[in-house]
Specification:
Blueprint: E1 5-7, H1 16-38, H2 47-65, E2 69-70, E3 74-76, E4 79-86, E5 89-97, H3 109-113, E6 115-123, H4 127-134, E7 141-144, H5 151-160, E8 164-171, H6 190-203, E9 209-214, H7 222-234, E10 238-241, H8 250-256, E11 261-263, H9 275-292, E12 294-299, H10 303-312, H11 315-318, E13 322-323
Parallel strand pairs: 6-7, 6-12, 6-13, 7-8, 8-9, 9-10, 10-11
Antiparallel strand pairs: 1-5, 2-4, 3-4, 4-5
Helix pairs in contact: 1-2, 6-7, 9-10
Amino acid sequence: MRDILSQGGDRGRSPWPRRVAAVAALLLVATVIVWRLAGHRHSPAHPARAATTRVLQSLGGVATRHGLTQDAPSESREGILLRYRRAGFPTHTIHIHSAPETTLQDLPEATSRARLAIILDDLGNDQAAAEAIFALPYPLTISVLPNHAHSVEIAEEAHRRGYQVMLHLPMESVGQGKPESQELRPGMSSKDVSTLVNGFLRAVPDVAGVNNHQGSQSTTDLALMDELMPVLRDRRLFYIDSRTTAATVAYDAARRAGVLSGYRNVPFLDDVIDVAAVRKQLRLALREAGQKSEAIAIGHPHPATLKALSEILPEAQAQGVRLVPASELVH
């Protein structure tokens, strides 16, 4: 609030100008607060206008009691200008500033709606990589592989620091990627699926949800996915389909089973492990979040990825994108 009250003339004649100024200033603070709040309402007949009228009447009463006369108010887009006189000489000028009216429609769409969740997969072996993630001041979600050297410590420390933790559930892949010693495979019985998944969950404490590690073979097997989802539902866990293959049926199976679910809907951040390439993918993820309202991105704790995250994520707020845990984007 600037230039609310300025005084001029007759300062040495009596103490009343200071009293008027003090009372007027208090009244005007209330007026400006009401006025600014009114700028965010949609109705032109908002009660703040009546409140403004009452304050102006009060100012008039103060002026009358102290022998002041008021010139006709001057109104503009910036507010109301009031001038007071005594015996024809100007004594006080009061300027009530009003903020321009703003409605939700005036705000950039991305500011109110756009959200981006970033999941970092494959944690479990490298504690230094986990510490590097924890050093980033953003609500990233980490997905931890079970039964690795530091799976428990990393999950517990992440949870203690307020990061959301997921189980990175090993599943069979079509390709030649290195398989985990235990993983979900087509043809497993319901009992085998339940035993394996519950064992994995005991190996990664404090998880809120699950996403698939690899799984380009397993996530296309409808029978296997139909066996998996009730286990997650009974544990009240959400599921994120990493979409390692376009033929996946995992997300649809989760929806049918009543599991809160989502899926990666922007390109992987670090298929090319290079800082410049990851920067490009991160900017794409931010742009897609703004356009789609919600985006789930997946990367890995490579040094190049972490460096790019530290450089690009400060841009999110300026682009009207809010970074959120993965659980905020499941439905």
